[in-house]
Write a structure and sequence with these properties.
Keywords: Disulfide bond, Membrane, Signal, Transmembrane, Transmembrane helix
Organism: Patagioenas fasciata monilis
Strand content: 15-25%
Radius of gyration: 34 Å
Protein name: Mucin-4-like
Shape: elongated
Biased composition (Acidic residues): 524-533
Subcellular location: Membrane
């Protein structure tokens, strides 16, 4: 009897256990793809490069997982599924007017997680912004203004552009080495096709960059600003550091690049730009709601980066009063290399407050770092600059070097010169060079055209017994080729001429003329001696 009761109670218990299990299973929603949507998921902010995307974020409450959707992109793409997300304002900063009403869940694209086994610069580059990161420290802005020796630049009108910057190394961007750049009041850095192509672009495209843009630019915080009412200003400072000591600011930039992108990096040129208290266009009734942020461009001549820093609590535009809320953060290189930051695909409550979110590639709120170059070839500007920076001044080694003969025939009869012939670019030239060096080991080179006329002469620091008129086999001509042909810069060719001075045939005297003048001087001295006797 006892055994029967035990069996009955056990059977009833098993049935209850099975019913509980079925009820729990029914409570778990299932997507159309058959995957389970847990009650708590991690909303993932994505930025992808190439075939992988490293995604990081914090846990937020969500109810479902939507079907995957694809986002159009170029060499740098964003794709993934949509998840519910609620923006969270960091603690310690009050939510501006109109912001609290936008904290309801909003969709967010997600992407696959990059395997943790992938390391190096490419994997480090994939970290992206994530919401609700109030526990993370905020990045401090770099020092700026007169106390930091920055230059202030502002025009009291609706739109203005900065002066043109021309880094000697050039600036690698996408697949191209760019020669010049300028920034605008609207939060852009633009790389013009020429010095005459300087324009303003106040309004960002509603859908962001497509990769088909002809004008290369970086959108630090691209939206229409207005400095015309006497509020706000900009500051900038260049730091050329290829052959000089580096100030603490540049060393800190290098440290951030090395840390976050795992890249050995030594800056050759850096530009710091600060937009201070920039008012929004159309915000004429309230110029107190301004934004303050910075951009730092830096390159070693081969690699290039931009650091974007947004002041904690300083991004205060009232987006509810703007005509459009299309602010853009990202870049487009003009040759298909582009990125639209994931943050700018979110609601205005988030994308107008980048200071409240962990930046791309970093672990700080308000700091974004992008790698900007893709496949730039040899930088002959950098080669030329590195070489000229190591050369002695000619006055240290050029004493006693002769002028060039005015014609090839003169030089061929002068034992101080040796002749050779070879190809130089597309031209056929004849060449004379010093038969022996001066006491400092230097010599001269003289080039002649097919009519035996002098084309150009140069003093050269290092004499060689044999010279060839080919930049592929002669180091001195190779240096000339770097600076005056390949670099595409008249300034660098002038720098080359400072280290290897041009010479002509002024003051040239043939050995016969030198001998006859010496003979005349000797005869006159003998005649004088005879008269004395």
């Amino acid at each position: 009897m006892g055994t029967g009761r035990w069996k009955t109670s056990t059977f009833v218990g098993c049935c209850i256990w099975i019913l509980h299990g079925l009820r729990a299973a029914a409570a778990i929603p299932v997507t159309t793809e058959g995957s389970f949507a847990a009650g708590t998921v991690s909303p993932i902010a994505t930025e992808s490069k190439g075939p992988h995307a490293l995604v990081m974020g914090t846990a937020e409450t969500s109810t479902t997982v939507a079907n995957a959707e694809t986002a159009e992109s170029g060499l740098v793409g964003d794709a993934g599924g949509a998840q519910l997300w609620s923006p969270e304002v960091a603690s310690g900063t009050p939510a501006p007017s109109g912001e609290a009403s936008l904290r309801a869940p909003t969709s967010l694209n997600a992407a696959p997680v990059l395997p943790s086994a992938l390391e190096g610069e490419s994997s480090a580059e994939g970290a992206s912004a994530g919401p609700g990161l109030s526990a993370l420290p905020a990045v401090p802005l770099y020092g700026y203004g007169a106390r930091e020796n920055d230059r202030e630049y502002v025009e009291r009108k609706v739109d203005f552009n900065s002066p043109l910057f021309k880094p000697e190394t050039g600036f690698p961007f996408g697949n191209t080495l760019r020669s010049s750049l300028y920034f605008t009041d609207n939060g852009q850095i633009i790389f013009p096709a020429s010095d005459n192509s300087i324009f303003t672009y106040p309004n960002p495209p509603p859908r962001g960059f497509s990769g088909r843009e002809e004008v290369p630019m970086i959108a630090v915080f691209w939206d229409n600003a207005d400095f015309s009412r006497g509020v706000g200003t900009t500051f900038y400072q260049e730091f050329p550091t290829l052959n000089t000591d580096k100030p603490p600011f540049v060393r800190d930039v290098e440290t951030k690049v090395r840390r976050y992108l795992r890249s050995s990096y030594s800056a050759a040129w850096t530009l710091k730009i600060t937009w201070e208290k920039a008012p929004a266009y159309g915000a004429r009734t309230d110029t107190r709601r301004t934004i303050t942020y910075q951009a730092v461009l830096t390159t070693d001549g081969f690699r290039s980066y931009v650091l974007m820093l947004y002041q904690a609590g300083g991004m205060q535009w009232d987006y509810t009063r703007l005509a459009a809320t299309n602010v853009l953060i990202g870049y487009t290189s003009g040759d298909g290399f582009y990125r639209n930051d994931d943050l700018t695909r979110r609601p205005p409550a988030a994308k107008y407050r980048p200071d409240q979110f962990r930046g791309y590639n970093t672990d700080l709120r308000g700091l974004w770092i992008y790698k900007l170059e893709s496949r730039v070839g040899i930088n002959y500007r950098l080669k030329c600059l590195a070489w000229t920076g190591q050369q002695q001044e000619p006055r240290m080694w050029s004493q006693g070097l002769p002028a060039c003969p005015c014609t090839l025939q003169q030089g061929q009869q002068d034992p101080r010169f040796k002749s050779s012939r070879g190809g130089w670019g597309a031209a056929r030239v004849s060449m004379l060079h010093s038969a022996s060096p001066n006491p400092y080991g230097a010599g001269v080179r003289c080039l002649y055209d097919s009519q035996s006329r002098l084309i150009e002469g140069r003093q050269e620091r290092y004499w060689r017994f044999s010279r060839l008129a080919s930049p592929f086999r002669d180091q001195e001509l190779k240096l000339y080729d770097w600076c005056c042909n390949q670099a595409g810069s008249a300034h660098l060719c002038a720098r080359y001429s400072e280290k290897r001075p041009k010479i002509g045939c002024d003051g040239y005297q043939s050995p016969a003329a030198t001998g006859s003048s010496e003979e005349k001087e000797s005869n006159s001295e003998e005649q004088g001696d005879g008269e004395d006797k």
